[in-house]
């Protein structure tokens, strides 16, 4: 076997290795006499066992049982720890004298996903086991949910997907992601009085007597399919979905032609798009056209 020539290590690497196990660190500061921070903790998660936060699991169980809400699930994340997956990403390759291609540089990068509607989503995991099952080679980085939401904003991800690939994934939409990042309370747009007020204001601004009423309710998009691990295909739960969360029902006067309906819709949607409250509170919406029922 031919002995390979000795390679000189970069200076900072050699210094770090030389200081490992010695009486001082690489800066020459002695290890002796140092004390741990107050309480003896190295960092926020040094005693973390990797399990999911109990507040989150309880809120999720309530949603599954039908006596909880997605607002309560998001609220449970306020103080929760999540795991964000980090993977190695090739930055530069080099070709050696023997013609073999090898990695020259690699970076550690956040993983992002692409939602069915094309939007970017940041995956995060409530437990170390869930992340390992999803991507065994990903490095789990423990962070608070608020910091995770900040990372999602920085990565221009409009969705935060909790535990993708598991039997109970949960999607946190853009307005909730922003609320988490700012450590503010969040309520879904279909239950937000400010959104209902904007809808009423849009009718007044349109000034069209053919609009008889307008209301907000939860859209079908909030529903998510959860695998119950009972051999069934799963069940729909009212929360955690990625589709339109707001359903706007508009009651119109009967007998309108297509052009008149389009004129009304264009006026209303233009008002919503230009309203800052509506734009920040609503992730996506669907419109339902209704006609008044017969007078009893």
Describe the structure.
The chain is of the alpha+beta class and 296 residues long. It has 2 domains: 128 residues, Trna Endonuclease, Chain: A, domain 1, CATH 3.40.1350.90; 102 residues, 2-Layer Sandwich (Alpha-Beta Plaits). The protein is built from 9 helices and 12 strands. The longest helix is centred in the last third of the chain and has 16 residues. The termini are far apart.
CATH homologous superfamily of the largest domain?
Uncharacterised protein PF11572, DUF3234
Query: Which structural class do you get from the secondary structure elements?
Result: alpha+beta
- Major beta sheet summary: 4 strands, mixed
Overall helicity: 25-40%
Overall pLDDT metric: 82
Q: What's the short story on this structure?
A:
The protein is an alpha+beta fold and 296 residues long. It has helices at residues 11-19, 54-65, 70-76, 128-134, 145-154, 174-181, 193-206, 258-273, 276-281; strands at 81-95, 101-110, 113-114, 120-124, 139-144, 159-162, 170-172, 211-218, 223-226, 235-238, 246-252, 285-290. Residues 1-10 and 101-106 have low confidence and may be disordered.
Ordered list of secondary-structure elements with their pairings:
Layout: H1 11-19, H2 54-65, H3 70-76, E1 81-95, E2 101-110, E3 113-114, E4 120-124, H4 128-134, E5 139-144, H5 145-154, E6 159-162, E7 170-172, H6 174-181, H7 193-206, E8 211-218, E9 223-226, E10 235-238, E11 246-252, H8 258-273, H9 276-281, E12 285-290
Helix pairs in contact: 2-3, 5-6, 7-8
Defining traits:
3-stranded antiparallel sheet, 2 domains, 12 strands, alpha+beta, Trna Endonuclease, Chain: A, domain 1, disordered N terminus
């Amino acid at each position: 076997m031919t002995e390979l020539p000795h390679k000189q290590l970069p200076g900072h690497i050699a210094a770090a290795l030389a200081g490992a196990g010695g009486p001082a660190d690489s800066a020459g500061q002695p290890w002796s006499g140092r004390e741990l921070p107050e309480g003896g903790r190295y960092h926020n998660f040094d005693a973390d066992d990797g399990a999911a936060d109990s507040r989150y699991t309880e809120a999720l169980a309530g949603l599954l049982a039908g006596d909880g809400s997605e607002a309560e699930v998001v609220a449970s994340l306020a103080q929760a720890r999540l795991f964000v997956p980090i993977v190695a990403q090739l930055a530069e390759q080099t070709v050696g004298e023997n013609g073999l291609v090898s990695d020259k540089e690699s970076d550690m990068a956040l993983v992002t996903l692409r939602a069915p509607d094309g939007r970017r989503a940041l995956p995060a995991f409530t437990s170390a086991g869930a992340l390992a099952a999803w991507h065994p080679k990903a490095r789990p980085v423990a962070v608070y949910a608020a910091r995770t939401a900040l990372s999602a904003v920085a990565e221009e991800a409009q969705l935060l997907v909790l535990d993708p690939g598991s039997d109970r994934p949960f999607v946190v939409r853009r307005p909730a992601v922003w609320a988490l990042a700012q450590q503010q309370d969040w309520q879904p747009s279909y239950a937000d009085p400010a959104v209902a007020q904007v809808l009423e204001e849009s009718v007044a601004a349109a000034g069209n007597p053919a609009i008889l009423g307008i209301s907000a309710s939860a859209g079908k998009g909030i529903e998510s399919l959860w695998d119950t691990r009972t051999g069934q295909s799963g069940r729909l739960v009212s929360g955690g979905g990625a589709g339109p969360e707001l359903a706007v029902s508009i009651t119109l006067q009967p007998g309108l032609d297509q052009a008149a309906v389009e004129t009304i819709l264009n006026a209303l949607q233009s008002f919503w798009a230009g309203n800052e409250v509506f734009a920040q509170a609503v992730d996506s919406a669907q419109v339902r056209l209704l006609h008044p029922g017969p007078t009893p």
